[in-house]
């Protein structure tokens, strides 16, 4: 099939067979560089420009087959003087004393061959920029039955990710890597969530699909339901190009730990005043659910000799702890029939356990076997060191009857604020909450509705070396979450320090700005060499996204968040959001007759 070229525009038949579609000629396939079915070089037409990430298309007539379309993405661009033999010739050429021509060439990585007859393009064949339907087919967007926008390409057109590789149909999970502070990992994760919720891909499931976000960086993520006052017209147009509304998340509930020293357990947040609930675990829940192992959530705890002792003590507490009152306090009923004093704080419970383990007469009843005293002492030292970080969230001294559990049923997006907790307490919360949500999904017996879990600092919770309860749960999510509808969106500074099996189970991989040393690690083998170099200088908001259907990662720029990313940007929430959160925060909402009684004033 011949191309008719006039003024740099080719009249041609598109991939779908439509004739007369105009496309800009980019150049011709070079004959001085070897072309293959997987890559080729293009000599750029004088006066034209090809840049990285441009999508180009060429054709070849194959006997017995007909026209074969070869499409690809520009992964390298070069310019040189033809006719120069020495470096100093550049000055003579610039002065006009030496004849030479400037030649630009581009390396193209093939993404699609249609039909699949893998032949190299013919040198001299016309190459043109792919537009509209051609671009969609070159990047496999035309075969994505359920696609969600993930940002804009360098040409300003939308780029998509196949939702089949996010919801568990053909794959699941997202891994986002990049330098802290400049890679915008969390911003991209929230934008991806927003796109999933607002692109229409969920259809009737949109209302019941949930997201659980663990926030560890101040109160920046606590205002996702507030409009961003810095949103400008250019960003709004970007949302329009993606087919998304430029507005904040519609349904958000925040969970925060109790304020230290507050006898009523008021949430420990300063900037947000509505739609916030306290979370903590009573001593009774701590014993009944065998949460002791999550107090030893560091990887080195599992390698210690006292790891078996943790399970023994947890089992004893589950069997022997009895409720004392309605506030979650407990008393431990010992095998001899006596009971310990009532424990109302985590420190009280630790003192009881320590007293039993240091007593020669009672130690064996707790350990279940002869345990060296050194192992017991090591266990107690570690347990005592957990008193200070865990006391604010393991309580038996707060008023009874209040809701203190973290639940994803209150809103579409549930945010667990961890920034005011020590590192050890953060691990405890993440481990216990993930275990509870994973167990809930298992018991439901269905993968729908989906639950998206956003977890930053994945290298801290699932390190490559060692074992821990949290790592076991995250591995379970990565390996079985797809079938249960639990989708992990994990972010980390260094993918090389994250458990390999978790990263390997991520169908979609994303990299923002990378440290130059980290970019050379084998974990980033999915990035071509040129993109690895670009990732070390990438600007905030630029991400490189790889998905199974597209052979080449795509450079994506996502628009500025329409929701507040820090308290200073937060505008007033929409009226509907205010009404919902005000109702959720009303302390009198659950009282009998609260809605029917007419106030006497």
Automatic annotation (TrEMBL):
Its name, as the record gives it, is ATP-binding protein
Spell out the SUPFAM superfamilies in the cross-references: P-loop containing nucleoside triphosphate hydrolases
Renumbered residue ranges of the record's region Disordered:
567-601
Q: Where is the composition biased (Low complexity)?
A: 576-587
What PANTHER family would the database entry show? SLR6007 PROTEIN, UNCHARACTERIZED PROTEIN YJGR-RELATED
Chain coiled-coil ranges:
none
Organism, by scientific name, is: Sphaerisporangium rubeum
Q: What is the lineage of its organism?
A: Bacteria, Bacillati, Actinomycetota, Actinomycetes, Streptosporangiales
């Amino acid at each position: 099939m011949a191309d008719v070229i006039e003024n740099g525009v080719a009249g041609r038949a598109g991939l779908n067979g439509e004739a007369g579609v105009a496309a800009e000629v980019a150049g011709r396939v070079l004959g001085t560089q070897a072309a293959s079915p997987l890559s080729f070089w293009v000599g750029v037409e004088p006066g034209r420009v090809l840049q990285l990430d441009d999508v180009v298309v060429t054709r070849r007539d194959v006997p017995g087959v007909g026209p074969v379309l070869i499409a690809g993405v520009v992964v390298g661009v070069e310019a040189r003087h033809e006719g120069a033999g020495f470096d100093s010739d550049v000055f003579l050429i610039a002065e006009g004393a030496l004849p030479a021509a400037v030649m630009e060439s581009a390396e193209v990585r093939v993404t699609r061959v249609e039909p699949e007859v893998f032949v190299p393009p013919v040198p001299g064949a016309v190459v043109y920029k792919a537009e509209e339907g051609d671009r969609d087919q070159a990047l496999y967007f035309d075969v994505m039955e359920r696609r969600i926008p993930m940002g804009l390409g360098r040409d300003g057109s939308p780029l998509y990710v196949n939702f089949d590789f996010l919801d568990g149909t053909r794959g699941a999970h997202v891994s986002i890597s990049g330098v802290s502070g400049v890679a915008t990992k969390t911003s991209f994760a929230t934008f991806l969530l927003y796109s999933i919720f607002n692109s229409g891909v969920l259809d009737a499931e949109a209302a019941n699909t949930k997201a659980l976000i663990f926030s560890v960086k101040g109160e920046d993520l606590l205002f996702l339901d507030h409009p961003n006052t810095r949103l400008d017209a250019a960003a709004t147009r970007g949302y329009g190009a993606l087919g998304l509304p430029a507005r904040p998340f519609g349904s958000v509930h925040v969970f925060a730990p109790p304020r230290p020293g507050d006898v009523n357990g008021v949430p420990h947040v300063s900037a947000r005043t509505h739609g916030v609930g306290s979370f903590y675990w009573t001593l009774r829940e701590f014993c009944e659910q065998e949460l002791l192992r999550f107090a030893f959530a560091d990887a080195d705890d599992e390698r210690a000799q006292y790891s078996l002792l943790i399970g023994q003590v947890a089992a004893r507490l589950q069997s022997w702890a009895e409720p004392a009152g309605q506030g979650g306090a407990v008393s431990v009923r010992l095998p001899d029939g006596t009971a310990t004093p009532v424990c109302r704080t985590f420190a009280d419970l630790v003192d009881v356990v320590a007293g039993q383990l240091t007593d020669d007469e009672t130690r064996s009843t707790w350990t279940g076997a002869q345990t060296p005293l050194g192992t017991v002492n090591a266990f107690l030292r570690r347990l005592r060191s957990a008193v200070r970080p865990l006391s604010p969230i393991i309580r038996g001294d707060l008023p009874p009857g209040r809701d203190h559990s973290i639940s994803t049923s209150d809103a579409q997006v549930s945010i667990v604020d961890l920034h005011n907790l020590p590192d050890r307490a953060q691990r405890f919360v993440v481990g216990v909450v993930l275990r509870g949500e994973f167990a809930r999904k298992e018991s439901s017996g269905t993968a729908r509705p989906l639950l998206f879990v956003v977890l930053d600092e994945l290298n801290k919770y699932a390190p490559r070396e060692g074992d821990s309860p949290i790592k076991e749960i995250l591995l379970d999510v990565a390996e079985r979450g797809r079938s249960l509808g639990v989708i992990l969106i994990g972010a980390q500074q260094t993918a090389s320090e994250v458990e390999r099996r978790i990263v390997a189970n991520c169908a979609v991989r994303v990299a923002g700005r990378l440290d130059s040393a980290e970019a050379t690690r084998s974990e980033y083998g999915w990035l071509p060499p040129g993109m690895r170099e670009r990732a070390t200088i990438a600007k905030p908001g630029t991400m490189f996204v790889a998905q199974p259907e597209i052979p080449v990662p795509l450079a994506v720029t996502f628009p500025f968040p329409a929701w507040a990313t820090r308290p200073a940007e937060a505008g007033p929430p929409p009226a509907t959001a205010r009404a919902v959160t005000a109702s959720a925060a009303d302390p009198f909402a659950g009282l009998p007759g609260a809605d029917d009684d007419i106030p006497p004033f």
